[in-house]
């Protein structure tokens, strides 16, 4: 699989600043970037994270809140199209699917992150993943819509 560096991705991209003062203040503290496309997205309101989009051809990257992507980022565009992808600027690592969700939750709720990690390390994680996502959706007010990274699943866990 071909991997793209940020320099290749940003050639055709334009970074736009959000005029909201609160968002700009939060941007200074952000170090994790959630990459998503139109079909496989994890929508949330979590401090310390920002959403960014990947176009269909995976060569155009636009950061929503003025976050500049490090030149060291390496990610697999095919994986990013199939699963939610989370880039951690502090380690230059990219996590996909369930791993991205665990990383997202671990930043703010260690109990839920540990539950997810325990359930997903089970020999049959596909059967247990739905329980974990259901638990997360019921106990995390910051998550508005959660999509299972498994292709056969659909959107689950709407906030009440």
Description:
The protein has 160 residues and is of the alpha+beta class. The chain folds into two domains: 4-97, no CATH class; 102-156, no CATH class. The chain is 33% helix and 22% strand. A five-stranded mixed beta sheet has the order 5-4-2-7-8. The chain has a three-stranded antiparallel beta sheet with strand order 3-9-10. α4 (98-106) runs antiparallel to α5 and α5 runs antiparallel to α6. Residues 1-30, 36-70 and 141-160 have low confidence and may be disordered. One of its GO terms (molecular function) is protein-disulfide reductase activity. InterPro entries: DCC1-like.
Write the layout of secondary structure elements.
Elements: E1 4-5, H1 6-10, H2 21-27, E2 32-36, E3 43-44, E4 49-54, E5 61-63, E6 74-75, H3 77-82, E7 85-88, E8 93-96, H4 98-106, H5 110-120, H6 125-139, E9 143-147, E10 155-156
Parallel strand pairs: 2-4
Antiparallel strand pairs: 1-6, 2-7, 3-9, 4-5, 7-8, 9-10
Pfam families: DCC1-like
GO molecular function, one term: protein-disulfide reductase activity
InterPro entries: DCC1-like
């Amino acid at each position: 699989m071909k991997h793209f560096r940020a320099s290749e991705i940003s050639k055709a991209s334009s970074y736009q600043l959000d005029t909201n003062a609160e968002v700009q203040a939060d941007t200074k503290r952000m170090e994790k970037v959630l990459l998503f496309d139109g079909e496989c997205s994890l929508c949330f309101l979590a401090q310390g994270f920002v959403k960014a989009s990947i176009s269909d051809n995976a060569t155009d990257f636009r950061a929503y809140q003025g976050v500049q992507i490090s030149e060291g980022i390496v990610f697999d565009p095919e994986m990013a199209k199939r699963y939610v992808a989370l880039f951690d600027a502090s380690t230059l690592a990219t996590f996909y699917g369930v791993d991205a969700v665990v990383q997202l939750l671990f930043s703010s709720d260690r109990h839920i992150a540990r539950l997810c990690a325990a359930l997903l390390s089970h020999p049959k994680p596909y059967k247990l993943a739905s329980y974990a996502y259901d638990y997360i959706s019921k106990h995390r007010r910051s998550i508005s819509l959660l999509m299972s990274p498994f292709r056969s699943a659909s959107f689950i866990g709407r906030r009440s």
